[in-house]
Amino acid sequence: MKLVLRNTTILALIASLFFIGCKSSKETQAVPARKEIKGTWVLNNITVTGITDNAKYNFNLLDEGSIDCLKGSTWKFPNNAFGSYEITATGTGCKAGNTDIVWSYRKEGSDVFFLYKKLTEGVKAKNITDGYKFKIVDVYNDAMLLQSEAVSAGQVLTFNYSFTKIK
């Protein structure tokens, strides 16, 4: 049963990657202009694919707490690459407050990635080695979709972060 479930999950992941990647060569993803990403965004929703219906997970996303902790957080990406995000949720395990970051984006092959590092007081950004990496699935007008992946109990989980631009 586990083998069938694992194979089904892997096939579903491959199929989803196939459909995401099936754009004509004229529609390959371009690196979004900085002006498309800069601004203030609200993280509206986080969904996870690759989980079986009966599986119970307690995710600690971005070292900030559960999915509910991050929903509604406000992210600021100014043009100078030094931004921040603010978590206002006060539920169990949530780390409410403001976090300063340095952000960037880059193209790797046919994919475009959004990257950020949390800034630590007294430490220069270039000396911080840990950070977060998200595939930019779409940036259009006032909406942005980022994805990250993790493996848990042999399953590939895809986290989808849906943002809305407010400024």
From TrEMBL:
It comes from the Bacteria. PROSITE patterns: PROKAR_LIPOPROTEIN. This is Lipocalin family protein. It comes from Polluticaenibacter yanchengensis. The lineage of its organism: Bacteria, Pseudomonadati, Bacteroidota, Chitinophagia, Chitinophagales.
